[in-house]
């Protein structure tokens, strides 16, 4: 019996090739979708803390924050309309990721990325020009449509283009771009806030069009993945030539043979969303949905969306809160880069565990400080406010080298070709559903649970870390078209995926 994650007879050594410049440049262009994702996450928190923005669209929230002396620190920003500005992005993404699945499967990864880029462009233009709250929300919805397409296609594209021994690092490039996007948004918000007029939020929202333009133009020149080429046509020679080009060698027979076998199985699948519910795909489906749920109940998007609001809650002024969000963004981006360097060496399970412990400890300490030092009125002392900032940076670093990038990497690499597009759509939909739920409920939760909010998320971090240790097999170095074998070796999942009488072949 082999150890989970190290499967006998996988033929990994037969895979030839290297990380070519062609692959690197293609994946850099595709990962631009992560830049827009991060920018849209980061920009909303800063914009919703700007007074000109609040005065125009959410005047009651601004009045309550400035004039109501009776209101609790934790409840100043509690507005369902305000949170709908943030969360509408994810409802749109949830719905349109299923449209994206059909496009990705039938027409390829490249058209989905292009469609997402166009939707981003229009959404950014509407947001920057918004004259009323309906126009503002429509712009956010269009950005959500863009996310539905790009988040469905880009992780698949990166995993399929990358050599198996670099797949973790290449795929984590998506999360690195998310981190850079969040950091860019925080820097933009910090700069535009000083304008003290409507130009501040308009510039912040409209600048999403810059990475959207880069993605849209770049995607026109992207090559299609060999996996997609072979899935959509019988021109095997074209797919083989593309595989030879991206691997930098003519000796790709072993990998190409696996692609052909996976494609033969894929062709027989007419209803992938029905097929994916079958018993043999149970581990992948459970793992993909669970990881997306757990990624959101780490509380990370609370920090990403509402970092400036959170820092104002503990007593920092508007400019100080935006600067603190910039610091958090720098830490997150640096930690994601570290994850890219380590994920294919240490493996997925080790990073999940290290990050989980780090997040749990920091959240419990943050909750304890706020419970002991922050009442319903007034703020923390300067020393405690900056201690909370340091602890949030520790927490963000833990997420950025574990649940952040791995939450997208693992689901994108575990599904077989025949259900891969459907599986990624379910992954994205689950992510957006849980993100919407957390984004929409956080300010309400903060108002009711107060400092207990951090204990709530800390408890989930403890549960999810235990879940990974028990149920996730190691997937580093396993070729993507042979990933189904890791479940046959796992102590728990083998009882589900291995049919009675077939144990001897595992």
UniProtKB/TrEMBL annotation:
Subcellular location: Membrane
InterPro entries tied to this protein: MFS_dom (IPR020846), MFS_STP/MST-like_plant (IPR044778), MFS_sugar_transport-like (IPR005828), MFS_trans_sf (IPR036259), STP/PLT_plant (IPR045262), Sugar/inositol_transpt (IPR003663), Sugar_transporter_CS (IPR005829)
Signal peptide: none
Gene Ontology MF annotations: monosaccharide transmembrane transporter activity; symporter activity
SUPFAM superfamilies reported in the protein's UniProt record: MFS general substrate transporter
Residue span, Major facilitator superfamily (MFS) profile domain: 26-476
Primary localisation category: membrane
Record GO cellular component, one term: membrane
Superkingdom field: Eukaryota
NADP as UniProt keyword: no
Protein family per UniProt: Belongs to the major facilitator superfamily. Sugar transporter (TC 2.A.1.1) family.
UniProt protein name: Hexose carrier protein HEX6-like isoform X1
Lineage: Eukaryota, Viridiplantae, Streptophyta, Embryophyta, Tracheophyta
């Amino acid at each position: 019996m082999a150890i989970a994650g190290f499967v006998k007879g996988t033929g990994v050594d037969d895979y030839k090739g290297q990380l070519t410049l062609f692959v690197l440049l293609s994946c850099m262009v595709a990962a631009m979708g992560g830049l827009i994702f991060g920018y849209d996450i980061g920009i909303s928190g800063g914009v919703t803390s700007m007074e000109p923005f609040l005065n125009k669209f959410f005047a009651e929230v601004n009045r309550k924050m400035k004039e109501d002396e009776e209101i609790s620190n934790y409840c100043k920003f509690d507005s369902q309309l305000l949170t709908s500005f943030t969360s509408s992005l994810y409802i749109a993404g949830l719905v349109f990721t299923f449209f994206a699945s059909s496009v990705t499967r039938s027409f390829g990864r490249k058209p989905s990325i292009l469609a997402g880029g166009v939707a981003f462009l229009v959404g950014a233009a509407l947001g920057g020009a918004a004259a009323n709250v309906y126009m503002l929300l429509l712009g956010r919805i269009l950005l959500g449509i863009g996310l539905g397409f790009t988040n469905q296609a880009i992780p698949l594209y990166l995993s399929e283009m990358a050599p198996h021994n670099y797949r973790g690092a290449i795929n984590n490039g998506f999360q690195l771009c998310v981190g850079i996007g969040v950091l860019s948004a925080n820097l933009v918000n910090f700069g535009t806030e000083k304008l003290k007029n409507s130009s501040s939020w308009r510039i912040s929202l409209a600048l999403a069009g810059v990475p959207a333009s880069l993605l849209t133009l770049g995607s026109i020149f992207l090559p299609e993945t060999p996996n997609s080429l072979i899935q959509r046509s019988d021109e095997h020679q074209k797919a083989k030539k593309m595989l030879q080009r991206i691997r930098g060698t003519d000796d790709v027979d072993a990998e190409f043979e696996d692609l052909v076998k996976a494609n033969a199985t894929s062709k027989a699948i007419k209803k992938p969303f029905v097929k994916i519910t079958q018993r043999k795909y149970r581990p992948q489906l459970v793992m993909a949905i669970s990881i997306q749920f757990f990624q959101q109940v780490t509380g990370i998007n609370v920090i990403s969306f509402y970092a400036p609001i959170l820092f104002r809650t503990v007593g920092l002024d508007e400019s100080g809160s935006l600067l603190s969000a910039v610091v958090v963004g720098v830490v997150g981006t640096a930690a994601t880069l570290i994850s890219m360097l380590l994920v294919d060496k240490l493996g997925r399970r080790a990073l999940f565990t290290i990050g989980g412990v780090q997040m749990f400890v920091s959240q419990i300490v943050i909750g304890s400080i706020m419970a002991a030092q922050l009442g319903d009125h007034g703020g923390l002392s300067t020393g405690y406010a900056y201690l909370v900032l340091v602890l949030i940076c520790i927490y963000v670093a833990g997420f950025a080298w574990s649940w952040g990038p791995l939450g997208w990497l693992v689901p994108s690499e575990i599904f077989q070709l025949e259900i891969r597009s459907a599986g990624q759509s379910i992954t994205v939909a689950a992510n957006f559903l849980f993100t919407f739920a957390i984004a929409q409920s956080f300010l309400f939760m903060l108002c009711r649970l107060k400092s207990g909010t951090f204990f709530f998320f800390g408890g989930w971090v403890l549960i999810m870390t235990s879940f990974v240790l028990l149920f996730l097999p190691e997937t580093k170095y396993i070729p993507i078209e042979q990933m189904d074998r890791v479940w046959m070796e796992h102590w728990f999942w083998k009882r589900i995926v291995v049919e009675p009488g077939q144990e001897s072949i595992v």
